[in-house]
CcoQ/FixQ family Cbb3-type cytochrome c oxidase assembly chaperone (Pseudomonas fluorescens), 65 residues
Amino acid sequence: MVIEMSAGLIRGLGTVVVFVAFVGLTLWVFNRKRTPEFAEARLLPFADEPQAETTQANETRSTRP
């Protein structure tokens, strides 16, 4: 038995797949169990920045442009 799939049917199935993926991703992101993970991940861009250290050079530097 050969089933002919029209372009409209393929597009419709693609839409359903993308919608299911969107709903699944949305539920995964807004799951309360993941809040601590995302809170830690939110700070990752700042992890490589050095901590502000007060040194003699910084205290005597002029602030004039």
Observations:
- Residues 7-29 form the longest helix (23 residues).
- The mean pLDDT is 82.
- Residues 7-44 form one domain.
- Helices lie at 7-29, 35-42, 56-60.
